[in-house]
# Entry
Amino acid sequence: MTTHPTHRRTKFMLASTAMAMAAGILLLIGQSPEPRVEAGLVASDDTFTLMTAAGRTGNGDGQSDLLYVIDNDNGVLLAYRAAQNGPSMNITLVDGGLIGHLFDAVRP
# Structure
């Protein structure tokens, strides 16, 4: 009994799909079960908008994250830095103010 080219092609496609799915499953199994929060996330409602971003310290030897808080009602922007300092986490206010004033200060 001879196999038609379409049957060979179908078998090849099924085998390729099965291998791709197996590889995807192995990659998912190998991931860390701990949930991770990555910088670059945005959460918003009617009153506030929160945004995270990767940051760095001035001397470049530590990792930190930035949190931007925007008060949508009053037009206020606050920037906080969260940095690991030994065993403790420090959260400090970096800068803030009325959004209009902040943009006017950097406008040429």
The mean pLDDT is 79. Residues 42-106 form one domain.
